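Q: I'm building a small set of examples for a reading group on sequence design. Run inverse folding on the following structure and report the sequence directly after it, with nothing in between.
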């Protein structure tokens, strides 16, 4: 450690490009040289004239050293000290006459050479400093860009040996790829799959780009990271050539497309689910219309009436599904509009419960502790939220039991809750059920029909009223959904 520091301080080559020129060290060193020469001449050699030739040798060495260590100024300090010392020698040794003139002539000639030496070597050193500094800046600049890219980057030499990677690559892979690893021939660092087939080192896009000298684009790989996360990446690779078109390196760009793939999968699932959901009422409609027609033919009006009611049910279901789809598209295109007015929360709760109680014989929907609070909003949309929450409470408590609907005043808000004692929702799923297209996917809950849109639409409606929607639930015991709306007094007419 100490030796390293000393080497960095004394060795001019170690200091190149650092821009750390010091002037104190040349000053001290040159003073020490003069003092030591004087001491040597008078106290060791006992001959004041002895130092003439030696000192020239040392001065030249100092000028070269300090010009190379500290630039032009470092060299000039040494040159000035030398000249100054020579004049001191003339003075202190009492040179006179011819000896004096020729000594002054020599000092002038030497001074000229010394200054030239200091300037040339110092200038060389400063030029090297600048060149190195420029290269370092360019490297830092490139490195900074590389680090800030939102894609993973691997740069290899022309044999596939990794020279450089960036941070984003590390976060995609969940591990660091060490420099020196040879892509295409070293043991694979993790098991990757391409189109459901295990990928081999030789099939890696970078190895293939190097082999064929052509760019390889859009290959997709799946793998499992050490932390267990499944990741899908898209990889593009290409060789890099110098001015003479010779391949000198290869680069690979790795993009994390896991979320994009998940979205595509969700959309596919949604399409098949939506088709299924729409097909069910249409098939039933067709069946009931046929049966009704038959009963009308046989003049059995009681049965015909029953089938007519079923037709209405299924037509309503179809209307609900298409309304949900239209609402989602309005939310996505920012076209969901509200007709806000002052209305009574209590009234709307009673109306909704009355309407929905007729749809279930297994459940008793109980309105409890409601207060006549005035809120400001779109009456129809809030009704829609209530219908969604109570319908869900009915749907997700298949063995019946009570459903409580309550409302209370909390500061400047009316808070409405819908409580059921049904299947409940696990902690992990609770944060996701308000997402678009999200449905709990355990084998039990999967048996319930639906598109996973109701809560997403409800959340959008409530938030656009400056309210909040949330859930408290215990798996297997039931759920309570809450939403809050600003009271009329603290309305915000947005
Ligand atoms: P859908 O009911 O059409 O699937 P929602 O957006 O209304 O869509 O609900 C999203 C998911 O949240 C449902 O699939 C269900 O798993 C869960 N969920 C909603 N309400 C309840 C509830 N009261 N009890 C248990 N799970 C519920």
């Amino acid at each position: 450690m100490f030796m390293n520091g000393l080497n960095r301080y004394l060795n001019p080559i170690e200091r190149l490009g650092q821009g750390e020129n010091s002037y104190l060290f040349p000053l001290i060193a040159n003073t020490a040289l003069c003092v030591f020469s004087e001491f040597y001449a008078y106290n060791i050699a006992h001959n004041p004239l002895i130092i003439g030739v030696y000192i020239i040798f040392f001065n030249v060495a100092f000028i070269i050293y300090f010009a190379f260590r500290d630039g032009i100024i470092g060299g000039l300090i040494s040159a000035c000290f030398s000249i100054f010392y020579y004049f001191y020698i003339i003075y202190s040794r009492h040179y006179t006459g011819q000896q004096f003139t020729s000594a002054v002539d020599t000092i002038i000639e030497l001074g000229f050479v010394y200054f030239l030496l200091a300037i040339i070597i110092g200038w060389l050193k400063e030029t090297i400093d600048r060149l190195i500094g420029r290269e370092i800046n360019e490297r830092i600049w490139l490195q900074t860009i590389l680090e800030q890219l939102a894609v993973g980057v691997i740069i290899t030499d022309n044999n596939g040996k990794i020279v450089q990677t960036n941070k984003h690559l590390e976060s995609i892979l969940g591990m660091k790829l060490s420099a020196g690893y040879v892509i295409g021939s070293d043991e694979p660092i993790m098991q990757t799959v391409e189109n459901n087939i295990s990928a081999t080192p030789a099939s890696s896009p970078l190895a293939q780009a190097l082999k064929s000298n052509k760019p390889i684009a859009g290959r997709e790989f799946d793998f499992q990271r050490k932390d267990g996360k499944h990741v899908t990446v898209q990889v593009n690779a290409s060789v890099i050539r110098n001015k003479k078109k010779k391949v000198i390196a290869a680069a690979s760009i790795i993009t994390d497309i896991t979320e994009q793939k998940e979205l595509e999968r969700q959309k596919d699932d949604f399409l098949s689910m939506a088709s299924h959901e729409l097909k069910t009422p249409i098939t039933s409609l067709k069946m009931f219309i046929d049966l009704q027609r038959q009963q009308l033919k046989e003049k059995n009006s009681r049965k015909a009436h029953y089938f007519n009611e079923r037709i209405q049910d299924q037509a309503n279901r179809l209307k609900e599904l298409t309304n949900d789809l239209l609402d989602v598209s309005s939310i996505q295109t920012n076209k969901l509009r509200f007709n806000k007015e002052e209305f009574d929360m209590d009234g709307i709760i009673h109306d909704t419960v009355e309407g929905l109680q007729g749809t279930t014989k297994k459940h008793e929907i109980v309105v409890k502790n409601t207060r006549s609070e005035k809120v400001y909003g779109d009456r129809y949309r809030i009704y829609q939220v209530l219908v969604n929450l109570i319908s869900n409470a009915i749907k997700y408590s298949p063995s019946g039991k009570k459903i409580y609907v309550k409302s209370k005043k909390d500061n400047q808000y009316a808070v409405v809750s819908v409580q059921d004692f049904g299947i409940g929702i696990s902690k992990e799923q609770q944060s996701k059920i308000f997402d678009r297209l999200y449905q709990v996917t355990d084998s039990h809950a999967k048996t319930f029909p639906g598109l996973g849109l109701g809560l997403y639409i409800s959340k959008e409606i409530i938030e656009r009223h400056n309210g909040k929607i949330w859930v408290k639930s215990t798996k297997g015991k039931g759920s309570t959904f809450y939403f809050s709306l600003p009271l009329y007094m603290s309305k915000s007419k947005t």
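Residues 388, 392-393, 396, 420, 422-425, 433, 438-440, 445, 450-456, 479 surround adenosine-5'-diphosphate (CB under 6 Å).
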